[in-house]
Design brief:
alpha+beta; 4-stranded antiparallel sheet; DNA polymerase, domain 1; hpI Integrase, Chain A; elongated; 3 domains; 374 residues
């Protein structure tokens, strides 16, 4: 904590922040001190950036002194909230047990971007601090998605601290505007591009060809494919059981004949064995760089700078849904096959299913021209 400096008012102190800036100068926090029943009490009033002034601190201290003099009860002092670093220690322990690969990701975010909060108590972390973290993240050239994820992560830490009874107070993340993302995938492959990519993948890695094939023909997410086990494959009914999807709601996917033949070829020897394995025999955790190298080699991203139009692994799933829409499938069917919980998530494909609108416009044009207008 910064050194407290006595102001010209008795019992009223100020301390300058080493990090917070307000109107081009270090932010200032006002504290008051008074004796009650023989003990010295310190009470934080608030920061200048939050609207608190030295006059307000003087007024609050005056109320405390009057209450003591007249034997009235003072406002109960709030127990000091825990330090951010102590809450993070507990949170990372929880994350290691309850989130797949959670501790690795969470620990990276904490050590890379949030260590500056270690010396602060949760009650001292303000929206200003989080705005500063957001600005610094974007200033380093990192994506808005990273800044947004950081804020969501910190919000989750505050929520857990409240749930565990470690903190009683507002979640400052709620007052910080999260960056707007413009990263929705727009690009989907045509049939020729898809065949080219699968062919090139097969030359370098049969396994990554097979993984891409499942995504392209069945619409599974990368994580869903990595988690597949022998027990999830129902060859008699052409079904793939997705037991642990992203949204937590199991569903069924359907094998095409090509996917079925491929899965029969590599089927695990036991129900609990993974269908696809990493080099060490364990489960795959991330999309291999091999995939990106083959995409580059295929020239599918040549001349494309906008991330929304670049081919990445998720493009396989997006292509699956786009092909269904172009083939006239309903939004409801596409949503069910993708495992979307709401139709709103699938509406992005609605423009590809609008053949009836196109036919209506063409029919109108034909009628117009048939009446002698050209």
């Amino acid at each position: 904590m910064a050194l407290r400096i006595l102001t010209q008012h008795i019992g009223v102190y100020r301390r300058e922040s080493g990090k917070r800036i307000f109107k081009g100068k270090p932010d200032v926090c006002f504290d008051i001190a008074y004796k009650y029943r023989g003990k010295l009490f310190w009470e934080k009033i608030g920061w200048l950036s939050e609207g608190y002034t030295v006059r307000m601190a003087v007024a609050v201290r005056g109320e405390r002194i009057r209450s003591i003099r007249h034997g009235l009860d003072l406002p109960k002092q709030k127990a000091a909230s825990p330090l951010f670093k102590d809450v993070m220690t507990k949170y990372l322990q929880w994350s290691a047990v309850n989130k797949k690969n959670g501790k690795i990701v969470d620990e990276y975010l904490y050590r890379k971007h949030l260590k500056g909060l270690d010396g602060k108590r949760l009650s001292e972390i303000s929206p200003f601090d989080l705005e500063e973290i957001k600005t610094n993240t974007l200033g380093k050239g990192l994506s808005p998605a990273t800044a947004r994820h950081l804020l969501i992560f910190v919000g989750g830490v505050f929520n857990k601290a409240s749930l565990w009874g470690l903190y009683k107070g507002d979640n400052p993340v709620k007052q910080v505007k999260k960056p707007t993302l413009q990263n929705r995938r727009e690009r989907f492959l045509n049939y020729e591009e898809a065949r080219l990519l699968l062919s090139e993948l097969n030359k370098i890695s049969t396994q990554w060809h097979d993984i891409a094939l499942v995504a392209l023909h069945c619409g599974l997410r990368a994580g869903e494919i990595f988690n597949l086990k022998g027990q999830d494959l129902d060859f008699d009914n052409h079904l793939i059981h997705i037991a642990d999807p992203k949204n937590g709601h199991p569903r069924k996917a359907y094998m095409t004949e090509e996917v079925k033949a491929m899965l029969l070829r590599i089927r695990p020897s036991s129900p609990g064995e993974s269908v696809f394995k990493a080099r060490d025999g364990g489960p795959i955790k991330n999309v291999s760089r091999t995939f990106a190298r083959i995409v580059d080699k295929s020239g599918l991203n040549n001349g494309i700078d906008d991330q929304r139009y670049k081919v990445v692994f998720h493009t396989m799933r997006h292509t699956f849904a786009s092909w269904l829409a172009l083939n006239g499938e309903t939004i409801q069917t596409i949503a069910e096959l993708l495992g979307h919980r709401t139709l709103a998530m699938t509406q992005r494909y609605s423009h590809l299913t609008a053949d009836h609108k196109k036919r209506a416009v063409l029919a109108m044009e034909k009628l117009f021209n048939s009446n002698g207008h050209r």
